[in-house]
Amino acid sequence: MDVRADRSQHAGDMSEIEIQRKNAPLILVIDGETVQRVLARDVLHRTGFAVEVAASGIEGLEKIRSLKPDLVMLGVRLPDLNGVGVCRACQEDDGTRNIPILIVAEASDSESIQRGFEAGARDFLTMPVNWSLLDQRIRFILRESQAARRLSDALQRAEAASQGKNWFLANLSHELRTPLNAIIGFAEMLNIKKDNVFAPKDRKYAGHIRRSGEHLLSLINDVLDLAKIDASGLELNEAVVSPASVIADCIDFITPQAQQGELTIETELPASLPALLVDARRLRQVLLNLLSNAVKFTPKGGHVKVSAGLDSGGRFTLRVADSGIGMSAEEIEIVQQPFRRVENDFTRTHDGTGLGLPLASALARAHGGEIVLESAPNAGTTAILTLPPERVITARVTAGTGPAAA
Question: Nearest to residue 192, comparing CAs of 171, 208, 206?
Fold first, then answer.
């Protein structure tokens, strides 16, 4: 083989390289040894690749940046800038970071191979190179790189679509809240009007309008909260709060609904509970969702129990246990997804959007915690809210004394 051929102008003009790349991947061979460059170039040409070469690290790095090859076959020992330095430079450049690099080193030079991997190389070859297998090795790396690129592109498209959805939901929700508040307000005024202009049935209709508006406004607020959490995270208005006070407030709120269903609600709280650093309104929102679900899906004569305390790891735990219809493992998975509901006799007789539990879980995560469901068909459900130790304030707040800070 005439190694002098390597001295010819391999670079050619860019148009020639672009023409080659239309039909074949471009491989850039960077090697300080002339024989290695020529052998690699000729072997890769014969196996159907477009090939460009460089004799030094700086020249190779310039060609990586200008040509954006599909793969770089990179010798470790190069004049001016070694192969590890080329790898590092590629990783620091957004335009070249994802180009796969195949480093070539002596079999005994394990240190350079290790450093090459640490610097971002995708694979390696040892010298002397097995030229008969080079084609398959490169094609394997290219397939792997293309798969990773497709996955990355799909992820970016999914994230863009999700952001677009969240933007749409957030803006639509804002636009709907103003007219809905007006509808609710005017319906309330019609319902409490003192004169005899409206017949009883008209007052009844006004009440339906108000309740329907309030239900729709609640749905819009839930959608808006989920969109905020997904898009940019929810800003928490944190304060030191007594969980016992929040629990008592939520039970007072849900008691009329429980009484309609002939249910009993009991609590099991220690004499004192640790204060929590939380967003009180969001904590109340979480607990109301859990209590509302427990009351909705518990038959007449059943009971709901609320307990709280610290576990062995110092985490705050709050449990809402009911004696209701329970769920299978598949149903638990369904109810944790937005807008999904389990179809049964209870869900058909109760309003619901399928947003309550997913929103409660998202609010728990915003506090660094989680909600776990334990359930089985006809055996009731226990919803467990856990908050991390850093949310627990060491100073104690006596149960029922109210928030330590407004």
Answer: 206
Q: Which residues contact 146 (CB under 8 A, 6 or more apart)?
A: none
* Three-state SS at 14: helix
Pairing assessment for the beta strands 71-75 and 101-106 based on DSSP bridges: parallel
Instruction: Count CB neighbours of 226 within 10 A.
Output: 22
Report how far residue 321's alpha carbon sits from residue 404's, in angstroms, rounded to the nearest whole number: 27
Structure token pair of residue 254: 């849900």
d(C-alpha 278, C-alpha 304), whole Å? 25
Q: How many whole angstroms separate alpha carbon 120 and alpha carbon 98?
A: 9
What whole-number distance in Å separates Cα of residue 212 and Cα of residue 206? 10
Asked whether the CA dihedral 331, 332, 333, 336 is positive or negative, the reply is positive
Q: How far apart are the first and last CA of the chain?
A: 85
Q: At what angle do helices 131-192 and 200-232 cross, to 10 degrees?
A: 150
* Contacting residues for 223 by C-beta, under 8 A, at least 6 apart: 169, 173, 355
The whole-number pLDDT of residue 310 equals 92
Other beta carbons within 10 Å of 259: 12
CA pair distance 127, 83, nearest whole angstrom: 15
Residue 9 binned pLDDT confidence (cut-offs 50, 70, 90): very low
The whole-model pTM stands at: 0.50
pLDDT (mean) for 27-35: 89
The residues near 344 (Cβ < 8 Å, ≥ 6 apart) are: 325
Inter-CA distances, 135 with 40, 48, 144, Å: 10, 9, 14
Q: Is 69 helix (H, G, I), strand (E, B) or coil?
A: coil
Residue of 77, 20, 8 whose CA lies nearest to 51: 20
